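User: structure tokens for this one?
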Amino acid sequence: MRQYCGDLIGMLDNAQTILLEIKERECQYNILKEFDEVQFDHNVRFEDLGVPIAYAYNQVPNLEYNKLPRASNWPEITLSQIKRATPRELPGTHPDLRPRDAAGLA
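Assistant:
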């Protein structure tokens, strides 16, 4: 197993820590690139232990972050273009794209 379980680990102000496994989604086929089944199984176990871990992936082909020149509100637009799902909410390589409330990320 890798040394830690997430691509991004962070905490803002008095918020709780969250570990994000960031994946690029091939929108045309709705598949997460470089999805690792072994890593996924480990992440499900971490989630079962109460570790605040989730996957983050793009819901559009081109994020606002990558567009130049950037709009003044590019951070808000970019966050609205990213989905978040805990390992148990993520049904494998083909993510569920139905809308749901997901603290902080749509």
